[in-house]
Amino acid sequence: MYAPTFAAPQSVDEAVRMLGADGAKPLSGGTDLIVQLKSGRNRPAAVVDLKKIPGLVGVEETSDGFVIGAATAGAQLGEHAGLVAAYPGIVEGAELIGSTQVQGRASLAGNLCNASPAADSIPCLAAAGAIAVVVGPNGEREMKVSEVPAGPGRTNLAKGEFIKCFKLKKPTANSSDAYLRFIPRTEMDIAVVGAGVNITRDGSSGPIKSATVWLGAVAPTIVEVDASCIVGTSLDDAALAKLDAAAQSVCNPIDDKRGTVEYRTKVAGVLARRAATIAFKRAGER
Amino acid sequence: MNYLGKDVELKVVGTRPIRPDGVEKVIGRAAFGADFRVAGMIHGKVLRSPHAHARIKSIDTSKAEALKGVRAVITANDLPNIPSEEAFVGEGPANFRDMSLNTIARDKVLYDGHAVAAVAATSPSIAEEALRLIDVEYEVLPNVIDVEEAMKPDAPILHDDLFTQGVDPKPTKASNIAKRMEFKLGDSASAFSKADVIVERKYKTAPVHQAYIEPHACVVSYGADGQAQIWCSSQGQFMVRAYCAKLLGMDIADIRVFPLEIGGGFGGKTLVYLEPLALALSRKSGKPVKMTMSREEVFRGSGPTSGGAINVKIGATKNGRIVAAECEVMLQAGAFPGSPIGPALMTPFAMYDLSDVTIWGYDVVSNRPKVAAYRAPGAPVSTFATESAVDELAKQLDMDPLELRLINAAKDGTKAVYGPTLKDIGFVETLEAAKSSSHWNSPLGDAAPGKRRGRGMASGFWFNIGGESSGATYVNEDGTITVVSGNPDIGGSRASMGMMAAEVLGMDVKDVRTVVGDTTSVGFSFLTGGSRVTFATGMAVTQSAEMVRDELCKRAALLWEIPAEAVEWKDGKAYPAGENAGKFDPLTIADIAGKSARTGGPITGKASINAQGAGPGYATHICDLEVDEETGHTTVLRYTAIQDVGKAIHPSYVEGQLQGGAVQGIGWALNEEYVYTKDGRLDNAGFLDYRIPVASDLPMIETILVEVPNPRHPFGVKGVGEPPIVPPMAAVANAMENATGVRMSSLPMSPPRVRAALDASEG
Fold this sequence. Notes:
heterodimer; A: alpha+beta; Enolase-like, domain 1; five-stranded antiparallel beta sheet; four-stranded antiparallel beta sheet; 10 helices; B: alpha+beta; Aldehyde Oxidoreductase, domain 4; seven-stranded mixed beta sheet; five-stranded mixed beta sheet
């Protein structure tokens, strides 16, 4: 009979020790893992709940920016006014995941470590240059969020490692972000394409000083678009067309039940343009 | 008796009382199939084929049987191997051998998800573990999924003994084409010479699932004396009893079926999947067995409705009179014969008065789950094609599509292509209501940049049926009334039954309780389907209430010691009829019930009938939508469903039927489809990737009820549940063409397909 053990350690050290065992899996919101357990797709020997560890849940605003506990749910991000003002794109990505009930549980680290290329909260985290603080048997290390996924369902975390928290820089003046995803319906769906854009403008009405664009669901992991073509512009039609082309050029999607290669590639260009337009406008308002 | 006259004032029928089943459902206490449990029950699970088509070489259950907690393991060998026998069941003909083989495979598996074995154990997880221990050796065979591929001469053959019926000479080579059918009126081939304009096009639809929210579930107890009890949610307790008796080789009297609350059926619960397996498991283990399907099992193992390929040719004069029409329908049946090819051929031109029509089609098997009924089975598939073609005709003639339909509309006296002469129909009335509706007369509004808006309309027909039904009315000791219906309530029939009885008895509807009886507490009723229950069972209940009313008058007469004819029933009380009858205070039902022991005992009425004279339903829908040119995403902006409903007993429920049908049709039009892998496995067996609409996808569906009463029903009822799923696919496609100039002839019109079509049109 399959029956995994369950534990909810109170400290990082205890959790690291438990996760060092063969077949142990970390649990935060559980909105992926529990579904996989029920379907039999994932059968870990042990489930280790990380939510009882101090600091794993919650958002802290510091002088440098934000520290977000790894197991913090999307709904909690949405309740943090400071984070919503600074990184509206990250928050809207997290708040698109699943239903209202799922948003009350699904966490940033879970979304990242489930390692689906379609994860909604990740493109904007990557575009913001977010850092994942990883703990494990060899202590603590920092990774760029974009370096965590290795491919569908695989991460670059070593055995026994898990994410403790995320660090976000305090946003510079006139910068903001936006996330858009395409789904055939209006909610309760998985991105066919996702686009996260972070833009800093030169003054509230100035051109783009810097831009970072990441795409989801168009390659085995999220991919970065070379956004240099929009730097120095105010997103005129020519700049948008270049961004569209740049986005399409990095796509390496698959044909599957959610979309075709051709469709995903075209829509990646569309969403990159549209998300950039929103981020550009938001940046001007900050 | 008929309550249709202008002088009859209806007090209950046509009002909107609070639904009688609402409270328990809203607070989550209503007992659906999966909620039911009995003492000592164990849990059954089904092992399903991972292959689309394979020969079963061997099944070794010994390791599963040895697992602690396992009480029984069954394969097809635990059920009778029954011979081929045609029977009319559900909403179409079927064969009990096929039904048995669909319940559990014997020699071959014919689709991914086909049941192969079943286990009962002391817990669901032990049962699941036991499934992993069953070794099945398969010889994988080539498979065929698509209907047109399956018709090709070199296609993999599913059944060696299947020879196409309805062709001359009788074929000698086995085929996946089970049957050819044809309906003909006049001479279409030569009539096309009279046409000024001819539209000819091929269309294609995807099979879609009924997507009821409640998965199949049952609890079955097979007694040591050979008598069995079944608690399940289905569209017919008598249907479950009959099929289980047949599939297990039992006597009908040895099976008692208790209907539980049903969480959606739409035709998909007009047959059995788990009940025969649970019976066999219970018989073998000596324990009550509970079985529930997961959503994945529902998609892989239970029937969707057919997809089809349809060729349409319609010709009209320049004045818009359709002079000739032809339609060929290739309908996918799933793994066993029995697609709704008949209704698919009989319905798509039934909106029009035509003299020269030929319509023919094929019932085709392929390696997919056997199809089951789904609201107006067959009609939505063929009508999508014909109503799209009528829209193209309007465009070519530069005519308003509504006017074109009015010119050709079927009326009383029109001879339908499938035989009968139509009477008391309200199709023109639905078109007139559409024409004068707020929706049709409102501007479409401007689309945002990068988006395009369009409006479309389409119509549809469904027969509706009557059939065998039973109902009973019981007067309780305190004067309240219990009505017993023989049909599971899938669309508000408890409300409508209670309202009809209350109307007859002149009572407040809150003093009437309606229950759905088990197979021993009410007479036989054919299943809930064909939009028949409010019509047929409603007729039986009305008759039983009239018996009670007449008996109450007789009992009052006995109490008053006057002749029965001298008593009159009014507003729920017995009155002396006029001065000569004597002076007595009126007697309430409670007064009479309280003294019934002195006047002859309990007062009951029971009626078992074969209801004839169902009136067909016609629907006309209008759809406004907006298409995002860059993503191909479609948003339905406004939608109105108009239908001739005969007489709406409870208008809110009737509106709900129209809204539900429209929503399911919109899902069918835009996103729903089965996605198969190259090796024939279903790749989207869940609501995440099988996309029915969610609430936020849709506007409020507006409804207009047109009431052209059916004189063959005491209250004028026509079936309402099926017509509203017939027009939506064409209404959406016609709106899409209006918005984009592109004719989408293949369903679903999903965003990738719309974007590709737009790109192709811009070349």
